[in-house]
Amino acid sequence: MTEPTAAVSTRGLTKRYGSTPALHGIDLDIPRGLVFGVIGPNGAGKTTTMRLLLDIIRPTAGEVRVLGKAPRAGSAALRRRIGYLPGELHLASRVRGRELLAHYAEISGPVRRGAAEDLADRLDLDLSRPARSLSKGNKQKLGLIQAFMHEPELLVLDEPTSGLDPLVQQEFHGMLRDAKAAGQTVFLSSHVLSEVQQTADQVAILREGRIVKQATVAELRETALRRVRVVVEESQVPRARAVLARVPGLEELTTRLDREGAVALMAVLNSHVDAFVKAVATLDVIDVTIEEPDLEEAVLGFYGEDEVR
Questions:
Q1: Would 288 be classed as within a structural domain?
Q2: Does residue 277 share a domain with residue 258?
Q3: Residue 213 belongs to a domain with what CATH number?
Q4: Per-residue confidence band for 170, with pLDDT thresholds at 50, 70 and 90
Q5: Are 217 and 229 found together in one domain?
Q6: The pTM is what?
């Protein structure tokens, strides 16, 4: 196992349900104070991993440490240091939101006076309403409040923005930034690639119970495809094609009339941005565009496009 400063460490973490494998020897090291995202389609193993960290289910094989302790041995004292939002939140209680949060506070440990109300204001949630009368989005807000309100060392959030409208999602992203600034660690799962891109420092991509890639968001974006466009005078097209053809990682070079007397050369660049820029600098260009890659471009390389959506 890794040094005790890690918030989460696993080695060979494996889970099978009978003869059906759910996780195949997952190795994770999540330093404290980071937002760590796990991406994958349904069935990839995201929820299983989170439940193993919380001792909701037990591993078939392998080791796991959460905040320096084995979940099974950590018992209630460890769980009070963690805030958890399950992927399937069931709130059928007749009691009002405020009373339900008071109940959770008794379980989770000390909650700073006014913390729940402050979070409710941020998320625009009326705590006077019975929990079971709330919409899916408002139930999700209540779940977020109970996870955040005791300011835990580790937040484990399974699909946290499910059911939230875009404005509330942005407020949630602000809550993540505040948690990170306070030194808390966040472990969140999502199949929404843009959400992880906006919030995570590091990302693990899960497919069929295996980690197929682990990297920082910046590293993933560097591996993503960039679409580039160079506009030159029509007479310069042969030379421009010859120069660009020598750029490593440049593929699918095509041309299109941009306007009278000018032609656009378009291509896909999968690496070597510096070489592309140096090559373009030798040309007489009218315009150059390099699209900023996003995380989706990188992740689709590990999945069929339909799997991630």
A1: yes
A2: yes
A3: 3.40.50.300
A4: very high
A5: no
A6: 0.79
Using alpha carbons, select from 139, 128, 123 the residue that is nearest to residue 97: 128
Domain membership flag for residue 121: no
Residue 306 banded pLDDT, cuts 50, 70, 90: very low
The residue ranges of DSSP E strands in the chain, in sequence order, are 6-17, 20-31, 35-39, 61-66, 82-85, 154-158, 185-190, 202-207, 210-216, 226-233, 250-259, 262-269, 285-290
Question: Is-contact 294 197, C-beta < 8 A?
Answer: yes
For residue 91, give the 3-state DSSP assignment: coil
Q: What is the mean pLDDT of the chain?
A: 89
Q: Do 229 and 209 belong to one domain?
A: no
In angstroms, the CA 126 to CA 112 distance is 19
Rounded CA separation 20/16 (Å):
5
Condensed to tens digits (0 to 9), the pLDDT of residues 124-157 reads 999 999 988 999 999 999 999 999 999 999 999 9
Domain hosting residue 76, numbered range: 6-81+152-221
Name the residue with higher pLDDT: 214 or 188: 188
Based on the fold, state whether residues 168 and 270 are members of the same structural domain.
no
